[in-house]
Each structure stands twice: as C-alpha cells, then as structure tokens.
Design goal:
It is built from 23 helices and 14 strands. By secondary structure, it is α/β, with parallel strands linked by helices. Its EC number is 4.2.1.12.
Length: 604
C-alpha cells in the first residue's frame, strides 16, 4: 500500500476539521444509543412477546437462548428487476442465521421506485424524495430496537442512499448491504443508443424502440449500464459496507447464495455480542465517505451521487461539498470505461477485473484510504480480492494484476483520463456539476445564446418544431428540489445528442438532475441555488450569452441581471401523489447539501 497522495490527505484533513462538531455530536449520540438500546433485555416481557410472536421456528431461540437477532430491512418488490430476487432472501437468511445460533427477522420494508419506469413521467417528481421516505421507513423498521445487527437489502438509485441514511441513525448496530447482482447482458449498448436516437429523429417507430429497450432490460437483476444503481454497489464496497467483490455477481447462482450466507454469518461476528464489534457509525467515517467519492471518480460513476454523497455523509455527521469532489477529481484518474462511458457493461467490467482490480490499483497508488474499518475481516486490503467457489465453499483470491480488457479497465499509470471527470463549474449563475468524463474534450467549452425553458416537455416540443437547429445553451429551470422534486431530465439526452451530431455547439444548463446513464452532451447540472430559491437561472432570458467551461470551471451568463425580475415559476402540479410531497419540497435544502428536507429539518 503506497503513501496517501498529498491532495487526498489535504482534502481529508479539511473534511475532518469541517466535520469536527457534527461528527462528535453523532458519535456521542451513538454512544448513548448503545447504552439505551444495545440490549433488548431491557424490554418488558409483553414487549418482547409481541416481537417474537410471528417468529414461529425461532421463538424459543429468541425468548430463552437470546442468540443474536438480525433485523432485515428489505426493498423487495417484483416490479424492479434488481429487487425481484430479494423475494427469497429472507427465508434463506433465516436458515443461514440458525447455522450460527442466531435468528433473523424482517424488520420492515421500504418503498423502491424505478426511475427507468418514471423517466419523463409525472412520477419522476417523487423520485428524489423517495430517498427521504426510504430513510424514514428504515428508521421505523429499526425503531423496535430488538436487533443486534442489520442486513440491508437494496440496490437501486435512491434506495441505497436512503437505507444508508436511515441505518446510520442506528449506527450503534453493525450493518451489511447484501446485493442481488446484475441481469445478464442484453443487446449491445451502442445498438440501444442508436435506436433511441433514431426514434428521437422520427426514423424508427415506437414498436422498434420498445423491442430494443426490452432487449436491454429483460430479466431479474440490476440493469447492466453503469448508472446510479451500479455506482451504488461500487460505493458500498469502497466504504466497506459490502463483502468484497459482491457487487456484480449474478443473481440466483451458487456464488451469490454463498456471499449472502457469508454476510449473515459475518453480521453475528461484528455485532456488539460478537467477537469483533464493528458498528456502522464507526465504519462510515470521513475516510470511508471520501473513499466512495474516489471510487465514483475513478470509475466515471453517476452524477446523481454529487447529491447523494453529501446527504449520506450528513447522516454520519460528516460535511462534504462539491469543492471536495472537484479537488479529488483533479488527482484521481479515470481508470474504468463502462457504458455509457464505454462499450461494455458491468458484467464485462466484472469479468475484466471488477472492483478488486480498481481497489488494488487505487491502494497501490496511494489514491484511497486503506486504513478504514470495514465489515470484512482484514480491513480494506481484503477488498482487492475477488470471491469464488472452492468446491461448495466461498473463498477469495487476489484481484487480477493485469486488466482482462484494457479498453474497459486501465491503470493509474496509463489512465483513460488524468482526472476523475466530475468538475465543479461556478460563476454568476451559481454552482453546478459537469461530468467531463463522458464528454469529448473539444466540447468541454461551449459559449452560445441561451434558449430558456421551464420543462423538458417544452424542450422536446421545440426540438420537434425545428426551433433548436442552432448553436445554443438550453436552459431548463424550475427543476430543483423545491420546485418540483428535482426529477431526472433523461429524455433531453436524445434530442440534444441529435443536435450535437448535426454539428451544432450545444450544452445544457439546469437546476434539475440528469441520469447516471446520461452521455455525450456537455451539461452543467444540479445548478444551485435553484431558480425557485433565488437562483440566477430565474433571471436568464432567450439570447443571453452563456459560457460553460469544464476546463476553467466556469458557469456564467454575459448579461446584466441586476435590473431583471425573476420569471414566474410554473404552477405546482397535482396527481400521482405529488401533492403529498409538498412538505418535502417546501423544506428541501440545496442540491450541494443533498436536496433533503428531512436532514435540513432535523438540523443535520
């Protein structure tokens, strides 16, 4: 393990200093929770009888043996392909727990929505705040306080961050994330992307588009592109919250079953009653959070985590911002190209060397913290391995020293890009995220007249009418957390891609989100402050010259905004339950803080 890079050391020390008061308060709370809720023997017999009544086979063990009890929080539903395999997990996990004299109970379920289903639809306006809802549901699930550890079953976009936030408020307990794995690879990603663009141009019909999409999303398991869901899995390994190499093992395979079994057994070892206590609140510290940031940069992960990482960090008393990400990005090279940043998907990534290879490269170059506490035995060095079956037994071997696919996995010495490709751009329009790793370098700087819209539907209508056939910076505002819940604007990608392919200089500036699967069009996203919260985007007019430059970190409009009146925001819509989330919108803080009403109102 090499000496830590001085820039990473500097950022780490800055985060530690910034977080001193909040982190101390968090650890003090966890110490009090350990004293108050660390042992269910403090509960009365009637309380415990209610908790044990449904346990059937495990009642005697729970009541008299007092073996360890694992609380399972599950995001199972069979509408999400990634979560469909979880239907069978609790029954299997109960058997695995009994093997070591423990018990397991489903503590509760959390909602799990699919952004792929709601893209461009009204339901997408609930998406970001589903993270807060999941965190709250996790807290309700664990509030019974009859558990010695927590098994977290969740994979996709807001689900993992929500589970992390909720479980961290019970950080006196150890927690392990247990994934289910990706679906088999479908049609070639370039073919899918081409069909989407042809559909946007009106050259193929809906039937052909649907056939293409179903050829990609076709069976149980996580979607195989490297978007937010698979970035979640990467980050859980980088933080030491999953077993090594467990992210991308396919569902319903013997190796996946053995990894789940090992996770259950490990929970009994790292609980307060086990031989090696490792509470989640100690695992997730400043260094673990920064490891997640570093992994995101090194692999070209989802821009959505520029919002989720600050929110997760706050739940553990850690304060990070986009300047930290930007500075880390300046020294962390891009060493993975996974679709949409490359041609192969996460199955190809795993076969090429996967997470073990990435972590070995980063540790070897001093580009991540090797001294973090993890749920795995052996510390973070254990994550530079890959799991396999030795007969029927789970075993681990060193990760490959050489990439099996140099077009997908490179080295720190010869990276795809010298930096991590997630840059802070800022100026008189605010602060925003620019994912340079997915954009050709000659497009990092765009200066053009603004075309201003208040929704992605307006952009699509203008595109179809031929009104965007020019060099332009498309501004889509009133899309932040307070305005409409900050939906992803993924449906903007195909039309803007068409304009770019026609030779126009085009960029996007928005206070909304773009999917972790967004691609080649330069975009300044998550602009904060948002238009509805006094942001300058509300003052921009058609024809204003806007400059977006990832090279210099610039986001500015060349116009005098001082005499202008802010545009009137669209009237808030009702339907699909959006009206029920009014309190989340009203209380939400800015994107750089995580876009959370729950954390803001809790004073975290």
């Amino acid at each position: 393990m090499a000496e830590l890079h001085p820039t990473i050391a500097r950022v780490t020390q800055r985060v530690i200093e910034r977080s001193k008061a909040t982190r101390t308060a968090y650890l003090d709370l966890m110490a009090r929770e350990t004293d108050r809720h660390g042992d269910r023997s403090a509960y009365g017999c009637s309380n415990l009888a209610h908790a044990y009544a449904g346990a059937v086979e495990d009642q005697k063990t729970l009541a008299f043996t007092r073996g360890q009890n694992i609380g399972i929080v599950t995001a199972y539903n069979d509408m999400l392909s990634a979560h469909q395999p979880y239907a069978r997990f609790p029954d299997a996990m109960k058997i695995y727990a009994r093997e070591v004299g423990a018990t397991a109970q489903v503590a509760g379920g959390v909602p799990a929505m699919c952004d792929g289903v709601t893209q461009g639809m009204d339901g997408m306006e609930l998406s970001l705040f589903s993270r807060d809802t999941i965190a709250l549901s996790t807290a309700v699930s664990l509030s019974h306080a009859v558990f010695d550890s927590t098994a977290l079953l969740g994979i996709c976009d807001k689900i993992v961050p929500g589970l992390v936030i909720g479980a961290l408020r019970f950080g006196h307990l150890p927690s392990i994330f247990i994934p289910s794995g990706p679906m088999p690879s479908g049609i070639a990603n370039k073919e899918k992307q081409k069909t989407r663009q042809l559909y946007a141009e009106g050259k193929v019909g809906r039937e052909e588009l649907l056939k293409s999409e179903m050829g990609s999303y076709h069976s149980p398991g996580t979607c195989t592109f490297y978007g937010t869901a698979n970035s979640n899995q990467m980050m859980m390994e980088m933080m030491g919250l999953q077993l090594p190499g467990s992210s991308f093992v396919p569902p319903n395979t013997p190796l996946r079953s053995q990894l789940t079994r090992a996770a259950v057994h490990r929970l009994t070892q790292i609980s307060r009653k086990g031989a090696d206590p490792r509470p989640m609140g100690e695992v997730v510290d400043e260094k673990a959070i920064l490891n997640a940031c570093i992994g995101l940069l090194a692999t070209g992960g989802s821009t959505n985590h520029a919002i989720h990482l600050p929110a997760m960090a706050r739940a553990a008393g850690v304060q990070i911002d986009w300047a930290d990400l930007d500075e880390l990005s300046s020294v962390v090279p891009l060493i993975a190209r996974v679709y949409p940043n490359g041609s192969g998907d996460v199955n190809h990534f795993h076969a090429a060397g996967g997470m073990g290879y990435i972590i070995r490269e980063l540790l070897g170059a001093g580009l991540c913290h090797g001294d973090i506490l993890t749920v795995a035995e052996g510390g973070f060095a254990a994550y530079a391995t890959e799991p396999y079956l030795d007969g029927d037994a789970l075993a681990f071997r060193p990760a490959p020293e050489v990439s099996h696919d140099p077009a997908m996995l490179s080295t720190v010495a010869q990276p795809f890009q010298p930096d991590g490709g997630m840059r802070l751009v800022q100026g008189n329009l605010g602060r925003a995220t620019f994912k340079s790793s997915s954009v050709e370098k000659e497009r990092w700087t765009i200066e053009a007249p603004a075309l201003v819209f208040n929704s992605q539907e307006e952009v699509q209508a203008a595109f179809k009418a031929g009104e965007l056939e020019r060099d332009c910076v498309v501004v889509v505002r009133f899309q932040g957390p307070r305005a409409n819940g900050m939906p992803e604007l993924h449906k903007l990608t195909p039309p803007l891609g068409v304009l770019q392919d026609k030779g126009f200089k085009v960029a996007l500036v928005t206070d909304g989100r773009m999917s972790g699967a967004s691609g080649k069009v330069p975009a300044a996203i998550h602009v904060t402050p948002e238009a509805l919260a006094g942001g300058a985007l509300a003052l921009v007019e058609n024809g204003d010259i806007i400059r977006v430059c990832a090279e210099t970190g610039t986001l500015e409009v060349k116009a005098d905004l001082s005499t202008r009146t802010a545009a009137t925001p669209p009237v808030g819509a009702m339907g699909v339950g959006r009206e029920l989330f009014a309190m989340f919108r009203a209380g939400a803080d800015g994107a750089e803080r995580g876009g959370s009403a729950m954390l803001a109102l809790a004073g975290l």
